């Protein structure tokens, strides 16, 4: 890369420990950005502000200058609140996308206490993805790499490649999607393909998610990405076959001991590709 500016990596995570319980995905959420930062890259990290996150213990506070926007989903206004917390020993800040109805008022993440998938997880996915993009626009921070983790970030690739492709902040961004064993069995409510659309996204671009289940949603993310990483040793069989049928750069599953180096090299190789 000819310019000597630091490569900027935007991490969009569904789970990060210590804010949520330890899982393979939340551990990557915690340690991957730190590792990439030590490689000399500049990072920003986003996750949903699930209601199970203890604000006082984790010292979350609202960033007034970034909050106060409304996102319209299905003709309804939803206030976007941005909070931030720091992992001191890693010198990392985490941005949290928040909204009272979608996040704060619920004490669980994607399903209620009876393990029933929230009916409005479709709206929450739209809100989270759009909230991240709008916040990056307010920060005026152009990411070279956007790395999405978890199905709640699955709309970010199509938004950036279609709705924001002419925005100078994102026009050169490369998008990487990590695939995990985070399947859900439910189907989003009908009309999701219309509800998630923004100007620049045609009906034909989203016809695959007319009936949006986990596989269709992740296929959409894969279609609009520049590279795929296997974040889990085993992922959904249909997605595995789909990835193998495409000619996109793929990084196979990496062990926890060496994934930071492997991911960092993968980012660099994606940035070189035209």
Looking at this protein, list some descriptive labels.
single chain; 274 residues; alpha/beta; 32% helix; 20% strand
Outline the structure in words.
Helix 1 (24-38) crosses helix 9 (259-272) and helix 7 runs parallel beside helix 8. The protein is built from 9 helices and 10 strands. The chain has helices spanning 24-38, 55-58, 100-104, 121-139, 156-163, 192-195, 214-223, 237-245, 259-272, and strands at 8-13, 42-48, 61-62, 69-73, 76-87, 92-98, 145-149, 174-179, 227-230, 250-251. The protein starts with 7 loop residues before the first strand and ends with a helix. Strands 1, 2, 3, 4, 5, 6, 7, 8, 9 and 10 form a 10-stranded mixed sheet that branches. The longest helix has 19 residues, at 121-139. The mean pLDDT is 92. The protein is α/β, with parallel strands linked by helices and 274 residues long.
Write the layout of secondary structure elements.
Elements: E1 8-13, H1 24-38, E2 42-48, H2 55-58, E3 61-62, E4 69-73, E5 76-87, E6 92-98, H3 100-104, H4 121-139, E7 145-149, H5 156-163, E8 174-179, H6 192-195, H7 214-223, E9 227-230, H8 237-245, E10 250-251, H9 259-272
Parallel strand pairs: 1-2, 1-7, 2-6, 7-8, 8-9, 9-10
Antiparallel strand pairs: 3-5, 4-5, 5-6
């Amino acid at each position: 890369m000819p310019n000597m500016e630091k490569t900027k990596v935007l991490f969009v995570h569904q789970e990060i420990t210590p804010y949520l319980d330890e899982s393979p995905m939340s551990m990557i959420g915690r340690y991957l950005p730190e590792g990439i930062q030590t490689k000399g890259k500049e990072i920003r990290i986003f996750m949903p502000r699930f209601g199970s996150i203890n604000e006082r213990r984790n010292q979350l506070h609202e960033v007034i200058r970034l909050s106060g926007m409304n996102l319209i989903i299905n003709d309804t206004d939803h206030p976007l609140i941005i909070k931030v917390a720091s992992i001191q020993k890693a010198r990392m800040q985490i941005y949290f996308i928040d909204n009272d109805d979608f996040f704060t008022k619920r004490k669980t993440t994607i399903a209620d206490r009876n393990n029933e998938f929230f009916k409005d997880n479709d709206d929450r996915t739209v809100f989270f993805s759009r909230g991240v993009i709008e916040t990056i626009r307010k920060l005026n921070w152009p990411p070279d790499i956007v790395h999405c983790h978890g199905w709640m970030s699955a709309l970010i690739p199509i938004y950036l490649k279609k709705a924001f492709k002419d925005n100078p902040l994102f026009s050169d961004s490369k998008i990487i999607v990590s695939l995990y064993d985070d399947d859900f069995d439910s189907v989003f409510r009908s009309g999701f393909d219309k509800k998630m659309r923004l100007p620049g996204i045609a009906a034909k671009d989203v016809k695959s998610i007319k009936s949006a289940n986990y596989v269709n949603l992740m296929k959409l993310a894969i279609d609009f990405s520049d590279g795929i990483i296997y974040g889990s040793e085993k992922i959904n069989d249909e997605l595995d076959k789909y990835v193998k049928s495409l000619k996109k750069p793929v990084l196979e599953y990496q062990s926890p001991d060496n994934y930071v180096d492997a991911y960092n090299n993968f980012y660099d190789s994606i940035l070189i590709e035209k």
